[in-house]
Design a protein that fits this description.
Helices cover 36% and strands 20% of the residues. The protein is an alpha/beta fold. The chain binds S-adenosylmethionine (SAM).
Length: 283
C-alpha cells in the first residue's frame, strides 16, 4: 500500500530539521575534493508546489519554512538552508531532499534517488531530469533493496538519507534490518534516518521511533539523535515533533545542527524546543 503523499507536508517543521541535517552532511562532504555518492532511499517527488490542492490543504509549510524566510540567520547551516530555499519559496515551491542534493552536489558527485510510488516517481524523474547531466539518477525501485544493490560506492565516500513514510508499523523494523545490512557492506556509511515523535494517541506506532533508535544504537556505531519538538507531548498531540538519528556523523555536524535548531525554534512557537544527544560517542 503506497498512499502517502509528501505534498501534504512539504516544507513543514519535519522537513526543516531533516533538510537542515542533510544539508549539513553534504556541506561536510564537499570540504574534500574527492567525489562522493548520495543515496536517497525514499525520495518523494523532489519538488512541491504550495499552490496545488495537496500542499494548500493544510498549508503545513506556513509553520515550517515560511516562518524562516525573513530570518537573518547567525548559524551558517541555517543561513545556507534558508538561502537555498528562498529561490524556491519565492516561486511558491519547496525543494524535496533529492532536489536539495542535486542542487548542492558537484558535477563529479553522484546522486541515487529511489521512489516506489508510480505517480511520485514520474514527478521525481521529471524534476531530476533538469540535473541529469550531472550524475543525478532517479530509480523506480524499493529504497531498501536499492541501498543494498548500490552500496558501497566507488570511491568509498558518501551518505544515505532514509526517510520512509512509516505508514506501516513494520517500517520501523525494516529500517533497522536494512541499516544493519548496509553497514555490513559499507562500514563507514554516514546514515541519516528521519523519524516522527508520536504521542500516545498513535496506537501501535506510539513508542516505535524510540524502539527503533534503541535498536539502531545497539549496532555499536557512533551516532547522535537531534530532535525538534513543536508541541507538548500530550496524549492527543499526534506528531508533536520529529528527529534524525545520524550514524557515523561528520565532524561537528552535531554542533552545527544544534546551533541551527536553537535559532529555528525561536520562530516555531512558544512550545518548541530542540536537543542533540549523543547515543554512542567513541566506538
Ligand atoms: C516522507 S516521503 C519522502 C520525502 C523526501 N525524502 C524529502 O525529504 O523530500 C516518503 C516517500 O517514500 C516513498 N516510499 C514508500 N515506500 C517506499 C519504498 N519501499 N521504497 C522507495 N520509496 C518508498 C513514498 O511514496 C514517499 O514518496
Amino acid at each position: 500500500m503506497l498512499s502517502y503523499q509528501h505534498a501534504f507536508h512539504a516544507g513543514n517543521h519535519a522537513d526543516v530539521i531533516k533538510h537542515l541535517c542533510w544539508l549539513g552532511v553534504i556541506k561536510s562532504l564537499k570540504k574534500k575534493e574527492k567525489p562522493f555518492t548520495l543515496y536517497d532511499s525514499h525520495a518523494g517527488a523532489g519538488l512541491y508546489d504550495f499552490t496545488d490542492d495537496l500542499s494548500s490543504k493544510n498549508k503545513e509549510y506556513l509553520s515550517g519554512i515560511a516562518s524562516l524566510q525573513d530570518v537573518v540567520a547567525k548559524s551558517s547551516l541555517l543561513n545556507d538552508y534558508v538561502s537555498l530555499c528562498q529561490s524556491f519559496v519565492s516561486k511558491d515551491a519547496y525543494p524535496g531532499s533529492p532536489v536539495i542534493s542535486a542542487e548542492l552536489k558537484r558535477e563529479s558527485d553522484v546522486l541515487h534517488a529511489m521512489e516506489l510510488h508510480p505517480g511520485e516517481f514520474a514527478k521525481l524523474e521529471s524534476n531530476i531530469a533538469a540535473y541529469a547531466s550531472s550524475n543525478a539518477h532517479s530509480h523506480k525501485r524499493d529504497g531498501f533493496e536499492g541501498l543494498i544493490a548500490l552500496t558501497p560506492p566507488k570511491p568509498n565516500r558518501g551518505a544515505i538519507l532514509i526517510d520512509p513514510p512509516y505508514e506501516r508499523a513494520n517500517e520501523y523494523e525494516d529500517v533497522v534490518t536494512n541499516v544493519e545490512r548496509v553497514l555490513k557492506r559499507w562500514q563507514q556509511a554516514q546514515i541519516v534516518i528521519w523519524y516522527p515523535l508520536l504521542s500516545a494517541r498513535s496506537g501501535n506506532k506510539h513508542g516505535a521511533s524510540e524502539a527503533m533508535c534503541e535498536k539502531l544504537s545497539e549496532l555499536q556505531v557512533p551516532c547522535f539523535k537531534a530532535e525538534m519538538q513543536i508541541a507538548e507531548n500530550t496524549h492527543d498531540a499526534g506528531m508533536y515533533g520529529s528527529g534524525v538519528m545520524v550514524l557515523n556523523p561528520a565532524w561537528q555536524l552535531d554542533t552545527q545542527l544544534s546551533e541551527a535548531m536553537l535559532e529555528v525554534t525561536q520562530h516555531m512557537g512558544e512550545q518548541s524546543s530542540s536537543s542533540v544527544t549523543w547515543v554512542n560517542k567513541d566506538n
